[in-house]
Amino acid sequence: MKLGKLLAGGGERMSYSETCIICNEQNKNGIYVFHHFICMDCHNDLIQTETNDEKYKFYVDRLKKIGENKIYS
Description:
By secondary structure, this protein is α+β, with helices and mostly antiparallel strands. The chain is built from three helices and four strands. It is flat and about 40 Å long.
């Protein structure tokens, strides 16, 4: 993985958009967690959401995609 992809949204800028696994929107700024892109808007909202907030369950459900196995053939 290139350093630019790892530092998306900081340091080196990406020249292409990725689809966020939480909001499904195209965005250039964000982070990768196990090859899954999370935009900075969702990242910032996620880390500020309290566990008793209704949005928390939504985020947990979306983040389950990270644990899904993908078979490449």
